[in-house]
Amino acid sequence: MEKLILASNSPRRKELLGVLGVPFDVVVPGCDESYPADTEPLSVPAAIARRKAEAVLGCVSAGSVVIAADTMVHFRGRLLGKPRDETEARGFISMLQGNVHDVVTGVAVSRGRRCDVVSVVTKVEFRSMDEADIEWNLSRGEWKDAAGAYKIQGAAACFVERIEGSYSNVVGLPISVVYDMLKKQGFDFR
Predict the structure, then answer these.
(1) pTM for this model (two decimals)
(2) Which of 28, 87, 138, 170 has its CA 20 to 30 Å from the CA of residue 150?
């Protein structure tokens, strides 16, 4: 059986990949996740996912299939990754509240020399939040290690008015897309 590798240490991605019912190993990519300022914002997560997959592919046995992903929030032409601190997280949530934003996940599935990469976009609408809502949300600490400073599967769910697209994409891995990409590459799920 082929070896499936998740190029991520994210507990959310591990949980989502686990729904496939296929054993997998985790190898954390050690690669640069920066990008030039003039890069088209919606293409950044896919480029970083490819970089992560390629970094891990060089460290695993031949025949392994590597899945890598990168998620960011896109709002009014700006990419919001993981906030550096609580002050930046407050700024992100303050911007997003009462608005619609895009959650963009780049996914790369690599096997040998073949690397398929896609971007998945989900629209998320937050209802208006007052200062007390924002502070309560931040006090939960869920802004840490979260694109856009929130986790939809956590306290932020209290403020989501609607989503359009893949819920698992907002969590960090569009599992239906991953399943289709693996099938396209002939992965044996048995």
Answers:
(1) 0.92
(2) 28
